[in-house]
UniProtKB/TrEMBL annotation:
GO CC entries: mitochondrial intermembrane space
Positions of region (Disordered): 1-37
Organism: Allomyces macrogynus (strain ATCC 38327)
PANTHER family linked: COILED-COIL-HELIX-COILED-COIL-HELIX DOMAIN-CONTAINING PROTEIN 7 (PTHR46811:SF1)
Compartments where located: Mitochondrion intermembrane space
Primary location group: mitochondrion
Name of the molecule in the record: Cytochrome c oxidase-assembly factor COX23, mitochondrial
Family assignment from sequence similarity: Belongs to the COX23 family.
Entry-linked SUPFAM superfamilies: Cysteine alpha-hairpin motif
Amino acid sequence: MSSSALPTTPSSGSARAASENAAAVAKAGDPNKKGIPTLHDYCKSEARASFRCLEDHSYDRQICRDLFQDYQDCKRVWQVMRKKANRGELE
């Protein structure tokens, strides 16, 4: 199976994709009091891509490891943003 058959995300991807996700959530309106999207909303595209990869490749986690890493990176960015919001450091 070639690597071109795998779903892809932007290279060095999740930080850029995560900021795009945040912008989309902000436009849609966020019920969160601090203006921070939920983890589910913030990393939705990374989560979907990793689940889609698992389904498409018979749940072979090794094939999908890059997409898992993208999700983990997105989650880390979200956690830092959430901590800043909790400390009142976000604009």
